[in-house]
Structures are given as C-alpha cells and as structure tokens.
Amino acid sequence: MSSPRLARALAALDTLVDWERRDRRGMYVSLAPMIDLMARLGDPHRAFRSVHVTGTKGKGTTSALVAEALRSAGIRTGLYTSPHLERVNERVRVDGREVEDEDLAVALEDALAAREAAILARTPADEATWFDVVTAAAFVAFSRAKCAWVVVEVGIGGRLDSTNVVFGEVCVVTNIDLEHVQVLGSTRVAIAREKGGIVKLGSTLVTGVYAEQGSRPEDDAFSVLEEIAQALGVTILRPARRADRLLDRNIDLGRLVLDELGRRGVQGSERVSGDLLDARAIRDAQLSGRQELRSAAGVPVLLDGAHVASSIAAVLREAAADPRLPRRKPVVVLALGRDKDADLVLKALRDGADRLLCTTTASGSLRAVESLVEDALRLGIDAETAPEPSNALARAIPLAADGGWILVTGSFHLVGAVRPLLDAPTTDLPP
C-alpha cells in the first residue's frame, strides 16, 4: 500500500461486516443503511447520471464496455465494479483510470464518519456493511471528480443491493442463472425478480434474457422482467441475435445501451451511439480476471472468475475456439464458494478439464478443499488437493507443460490470489 492514509482507512473499513468474505447464508439485506449514508453525505449519487448493470455473467464486462465508449465520446465517466482482485482502487475508475489513493482515502474517511454519526444517532446506517461504505465512498469520489455519467455494476442481485440507490436511465440484465440462492431465491424466476428490481419508472431495460419455449414456470425469467417493465411502462430492448460468445453478447448489449443513450440526447464531443464500441474501445475495456490471458513459465494461463456452471461451461467452450490456446483440455485450478452448487460446477468441468487442482484462499467463504476433491472424485473427475493457490499453480505448470494450458476459475478470490504470481499479460483474447 503506497498511501499510509489509505491504509488507515482500509484498516477501519475492514472492521465492518464484509459479506464478500463471509458465508452469505446469514446475509442481512436492506437498502435502508445505504439510503441513510447517502443522505448524510449529501446524496452524492444524484450528482451524476447512471447506467445500472446486473446479471449472472458479463455484468462487469458490459459495464466496462459502456464506460469506455462514453469516455471515448469525451464524456467524463466513472465505472464502479466489484469485486477487486488486488487493490480496492480497481472498483472505482474515472475516465479509465483507478481512483488515486488519496482521493479514495478521503472518500472512505467521509463514508466511515457518516456511519459513525449514524451509530450515535441510532439511524439505519449504523448497520452499514463493508460494501455499503465502499459503494458510498465510490459515489462520493465520482461526485468530486465531476463525472457526468457513471456506469454502476450491481454487487449481488439488484433490488436490495447497495448500488440500487442510483437511478439507472438505462438498466441492463445480462442474463439470469442460479446464483447466490440463499440470498436471491432458489429459482430463476425468484432471481429475475431481484435483478429486475433495478428497473425504475422512466428507465429503459436492456437484456440478454429471452423467452424460452417450453420452459418450466419457475425458469421463465423473461416473463418476470416483462411483468416488471409493463408495470412501470418501461421499454425492453434485446439484441436481434443470440450471440454464441459471451463477449459478443456483452458487446451487443453495450451497443443497445449506447444507442438508447443517444436517443435520449446524450452527447460529448460526438453523439453517443453503439458505433463507439469499436475494436479499440473493446480492447481497452477489458477487466482483469474476466477471460484474461496471462502465462506462467511459458504456459498459457486463462483467468476467469466464473462461479456458476453455465458460465464455466461457456468459458471452456470459448477457450476451445481460441486459436492462441492449445487444443488440449486445460489443467484447472479451482476454488468454489460455499454457497455454490459444487455438483453442477464439477459436471460442467468433467468433460472439459484434464485434471482439477482444488484449492482455497485465506479470503472469501470458500468450500473446503478436501470436500471439493471428494465431490470431484465421486463424479469421476481426476482431482487432487492443493492447500493454497501458489501450490496449485506450481503443480499445474508441469502438468500443463509441453503443449497444455491452465484455467483458473470458480472464484474471484482465487483469481486475485493467482494473478500476481503470473508473468506479464499476453495479447487480449480476440473480440
């Protein structure tokens, strides 16, 4: 940590309840603390206009694509994403750059002070969590940086997420799958209701969710989004094509968002439209840990924090078509949250992985390594334990040497632990 002031602020922050690192089965969810924090800080979220993005997979990348396009149009743009991999600053970007240490420190100090005042006054922000305070600090930082637009990625769900104090003029639901079921509900319908909760009167909904012929009622997520939109009189926009690749889908969603902003008259040095998402913008928008290609001792290493079965299956499918990756099955370094369906994830990996190296990290509420290996072996997958990520990587390198590659997946905590151990980045995955 280069800034002592930021180190002190983060130390104070880390005394708060952090649901990113805890078992979420007991998670308390409410917008009341965040609303109170915002009021005590002068409602900084009202100082800028917003695009609000949620979804099971691709919400961070879609957010980054839209933010980069707005920036390229000469609009001062903020981007709020989560989680971070190595530095909290990664979550808060202004015009493509991480917020400076001193600016983040001051914003955190103000948000923490607002929480302390709430404790004395016994108002709802006395229960503000780690994520509440970081989100509040981000909005303070964006306001002080005089951002005209901020693209805000939801943390979990949407309806009761800390970010849902913003008014997203365009709201995005990238897709919906079973995730965080202890918090969001055990069906796609229930999860759709939570994610659709970011849509507000006067916004436009952009989504990659489609009606599925013959789907079971509990899986009909699009009908829920349609119901929410109709109740609010909100228009739904969807890509004309159903893209095969995740990145293509995210680009299509981003272009719809930008076209809609253009229709709303948003303009910088040029009028905003989907045409701003050109090859350069797509390249510059890539976030760390999302289909990020690195290497270790000459072995290609693909990093992706996918943590549900459908997302991991998509990553494997797309990697198989990447001309820069070997045609062999990867050695997979895997960690998985306790709230994830291990059997579904392992079944998604069963036919696509050469071997699993199961590990865990000091941060995060992750499944015990021995339990993960036992489940893998039961499903007929070659798996072994690695007590920590550095051991897993050291073991994976010789296994993947001589023409193989490594996939690190299942948890952003794992990706964040492995990433500093890797060599310099290679060329981004092709758009």
Topology record:
Layout: H1 4-13, H2 32-40, E1 49-54, H3 59-72, E2 77-80, E3 92-94, E4 97-98, H4 101-121, H5 130-144, E5 149-153, E6 168-173, H6 181-184, H7 188-195, E7 204-207, H8 221-232, E8 236-237, H9 246-263, H10 279-284, E9 292-296, E10 299-303, H11 309-320, E11 331-334, H12 342-350, E12 355-358, H13 369-378, E13 383-385, H14 389-400, E14 406-409, H15 412-418
Parallel strand pairs: 1-5, 1-6, 2-5, 6-7, 7-8, 10-14, 11-12, 11-14, 12-13
Antiparallel strand pairs: 2-3, 3-4, 9-10
Helix pairs in contact: 1-4, 3-9, 4-5, 7-8, 11-12
Task: Explain what this protein looks like in three dimensions.
The chain has 431 residues and is of the alpha/beta class. It has 15 helices and 14 strands. It has helices at residues 4-13, 32-40, 59-72, 101-121, 130-144, 181-184, 188-195, 221-232, 246-263, 279-284, 309-320, 342-350, 369-378, 389-400, 412-418, and strands at residues 49-54, 77-80, 92-94, 97-98, 149-153, 168-173, 204-207, 236-237, 292-296, 299-303, 331-334, 355-358, 383-385, 406-409. The strands form 2 sheets. The protein has an 8-stranded mixed β-sheet, sandwiched between helices. A hairpin with a 2-residue loop joins strand 9 (292-296) and strand 10 (299-303). Helix 1 packs parallel to helix 4, helix 4 crosses helix 5 (130-144) and helix 7 (188-195) packs parallel to helix 8 (221-232).
